[in-house]
Design brief:
By secondary structure, the protein is an all-beta fold. The protein has one domain. 0% of the residues lie in helices and 34% in strands.
Length: 82
């Protein structure tokens, strides 16, 4: 499964924010795009305060990181159907 909350992504889903993305059993905060078949997720980098970190080269952009491993895309109970 592949989902994205990035409107420019071909796999954009307006309901993507309802899903939890997990990497090796741990929830990934602020995930933008996730692909369980490819085993990767693109997320915003967060600071010690848990907030996204601005790109020092272009402060209008937020830093992103690609994480790899066992990716699960889960719709929590009570969130409807996938």
């Amino acid at each position: 499964m592949r989902i994205s909350c990035d409107r420019a992504d071909v796999d954009f889903r307006p309901d993507a924010s309802r899903y939890l993305v997990m990497l090796d059993g741990h929830v990934l905060p602020l995930c933008i795009t996730a692909d369980s078949d490819a085993g990767k997720a693109i997320c915003y980098v967060t600071g010690n305060d848990g907030q996204p970190v601005k790109n020092p080269v272009d402060p209008t952009e937020l830093l992103r990181v690609t994480k790899r491993g066992r990716i699960e895309i889960v719709l929590p109970a009570g969130q409807g159907r996938a």
